[in-house]
């Protein structure tokens, strides 16, 4: 009698699974076959969120100092005919559970489904061996729901267990291989990173504004129970909405408020600050109600890609930074797009800017081609993109910021350092085919190690900027930047110099490598 009972149970389970999947069918495109054809070992699915989260593999093993990779796919579900579309909107990704001395880097940490990304875990040799439970989560901004997939990160090696023998007074140290699941993680010291956005860039009076985002530490570990303060200022600079909230278990947060029927037209600025155990972070963004008589600038995305066929960034490679900028207000003449790249020691290795007109309407994409030195350090690099309405030294202010991280992996063989590099920066706009801007820079760099008592580092940068509007072309040659023995910097735009000084990057114990494009 056992076999009929077993068959009946299996039939019931299969019927239940089939009825569940009949609610929504996956929309798998052949163009996404690289991940879709993988033997995906784990998937957590909740029909009401309107998307699937795939993680492959779910168990990665690395040596201390090594790297592990998880391939991630966020797939939108196509509702059956007659059923409403979920309109998922923006999806945020986070990871939680990283051990101390480990950093997680998403190749793309947010997007509109369907999209694919990769999570790379970089470990230091000091990381403790063990099996760590990672929680990889996706959060739907519009629906306020999330899906979590649990994955394992195994750090190979042995741990030492100290046992004291009280009868003899001797202490024995027994090496044992660690197999226990470790669920605790350490929040890295430093600033808190806040990524957030509103569900729309432009609203009408009386509409609801949905704000959501995620908080992470310097290692990209999601921060739960983090206190946040949210303030929205109206076009006159007066507080319009103030709220307090906390992040959930995966570091996500959201806030909703409704615009009044007599809300003033114009640009509203959203300020978000976060604090957790003595750490602090802040971010800001904008949205428009009705029509704005001032620019309303937002950096929508900052993506870092490489031209190498294997997708791995090595010293000496070319890296492409693409910054998507939107303006929902009046055109911004002479808008400044800045890019700063810091190496794993938080030392700037690339600073550049580009002046461009940012029209209202369709976003523009500003691209910077970064040529890494042949002896570039391996590890996690941080790229920061800024938008300002002019030179800071001439009264301009920064309007928005976006951050992205990427990994440089060391070459297996020794390479020769090249101290002469060529870089090309290009920005293109979709608003007018007659308007283009191109900046070409040739950079010559001398690298010298600096110590506490003596420094002979000199860096020189020459830049040529060509701007074309219709049939008119203007060419400007940049000033020269020199790093002097005392650690002072000349020729650096004063606003950026002040910002760098505030971040304490002029440390005389570091090797200074400046690749700086100046107006």
Describe the structure.
The chain is mainly β. It has two domains: 23-159 and 173-182, Immunoglobulin-like (Sandwich), CATH 2.60.40.10; 193-419, Sandwich (Immunoglobulin-like), CATH 2.60.40.1930. The protein contains three helices and 35 strands. Strands 23-24-27-30-31-32-33 form a seven-stranded antiparallel β-sheet, with no helix packed on it. Strands 1, 2, 3, 5, 7 and 9 form a six-stranded antiparallel β-sheet that branches. Strands 4, 6, 8, 10, 11 and 14 form a six-stranded mixed β-sheet that branches. The relative contact order is 0.09. Mean pLDDT is 71; it is low at 1-46, 160-187 and 413-519.
Helix content: under 10%
Q: What characteristic shape results from the CA principal axes?
A: globular
For the report, how would you describe the main beta sheet?
7 strands, antiparallel
- Beta-strand residue fraction: over 45%
For the secondary structure, the number of strands is: 35
Q: What is the CATH H-level superfamily of the largest domain?
A: Macroglobulin (MG2) domain
CATH architecture of the largest domain: Sandwich
- Report strand order across the widest sheet: 23-24-27-30-31-32-33
Note the total helix count: 3
What is the CATH T-level topology of the largest domain?
Immunoglobulin-like
Mean of all residue-level pLDDT scores: 71
CA-based gyration radius = 26 Å
The chain-level structural class is: mainly beta
Summed up, the domain count is: 2
Give the C-level CATH assignment of the largest domain: Mainly Beta
Terminal CA distance: 84 Å
Give start-end ranges of low-pLDDT stretches.
Answer: 1-46, 160-187, 413-519
């Amino acid at each position: 009698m056992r076999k009929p009972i077993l068959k009946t149970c299996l039939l019931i389970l299969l019927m239940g699974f089939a009825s569940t999947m009949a609610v929504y069918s996956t929309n798998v495109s052949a163009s996404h076959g690289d991940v879709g054809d993988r033997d995906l070992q784990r998937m957590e699915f909740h029909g009401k969120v309107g998307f699937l989260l795939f993680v492959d593999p779910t168990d990665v093993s690395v040596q201390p100092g090594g790297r592990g990779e998880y391939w991630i796919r966020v797939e939108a579900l196509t509702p059956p005919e007659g059923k409403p579309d979920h309109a998922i909107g923006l999806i945020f990704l986070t990871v939680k559970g990283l051990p101390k001395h480990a950093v997680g880097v998403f190749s793309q940490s947010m997007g509109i489904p369907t999209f694919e990304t990769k999570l790379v875990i970089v470990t230091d040799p000091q990381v403790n061996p063990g099996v760590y439970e990672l929680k990889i989560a996706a959060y739907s901004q519009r629906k306020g729901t999330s899906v979590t997939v649990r994955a394992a990160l195994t750090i190979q090696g042995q741990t030492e267990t100290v046992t004291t023998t009280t009868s003899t007074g001797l202490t024995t140290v027994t090496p044992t291989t660690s197999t226990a699941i470790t669920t605790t993680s350490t929040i890295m010291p430093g600033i808190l990173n806040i990524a957030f956005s509103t569900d729309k860039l432009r609203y009408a009076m009386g509409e609801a504004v949905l704000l959501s985002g995620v908080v992470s530490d310097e290692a990209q570990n999601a921060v739960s129970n983090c206190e946040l303060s949210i303030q929205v200022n109206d076009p006159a600079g007066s507080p319009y909405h103030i709220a307090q909230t906390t992040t959930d278990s995966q570091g996500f947060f959201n806030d909703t408020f409704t615009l009044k029927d007599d809300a003033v037209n114009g640009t509203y600025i959203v300020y978000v600050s976060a604090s957790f155990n003595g750490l602090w972070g802040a971010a800001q963004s904008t949205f428009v109600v009705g029509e704005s008589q001032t620019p309303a600038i937002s950096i929508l995305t900052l993506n870092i890609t490489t031209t190498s066929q294997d997708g791995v960034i090595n010293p000496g490679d070319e890296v492409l930074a693409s910054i998507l900028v939107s303006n929902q207000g009046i055109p911004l003449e002479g808008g400044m797009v800045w890019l700063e790249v810091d190496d794993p020691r938080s030392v700037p290795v690339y600073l550049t800017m580009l002046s461009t007109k940012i029209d209202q309407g369709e976003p523009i994409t500003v691209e910077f081609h970064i040529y890494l030195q042949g002896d570039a350090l391996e590890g996690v690099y941080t790229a920061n993109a800024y938008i300002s309405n002019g030179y800071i030294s001439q009264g301009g202010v920064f309007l928005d910021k976006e951050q992205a991280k990427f990994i440089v992996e060391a070459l297996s063989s020794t390479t020769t350092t090249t101290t002469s590099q060529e870089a090309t920066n290009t920005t293109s706009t979709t608003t007018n085919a007659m308007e283009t801007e191109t900046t070409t820079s040739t950079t010559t760099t001398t690298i010298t190690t600096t110590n506490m008592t003596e420094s002979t580092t000199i860096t020189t940068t020459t830049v040529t900027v060509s701007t074309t509007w219709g049939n008119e072309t203007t060419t400007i040659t940049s000033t020269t930047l020199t790093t002097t023995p005392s650690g002072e910097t000349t020729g650096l735009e004063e606003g950026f110099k002040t910002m760098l000084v505030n971040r304490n990057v002029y440390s005389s114990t570091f090797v200074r490598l400046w690749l700086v494009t100046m107006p």
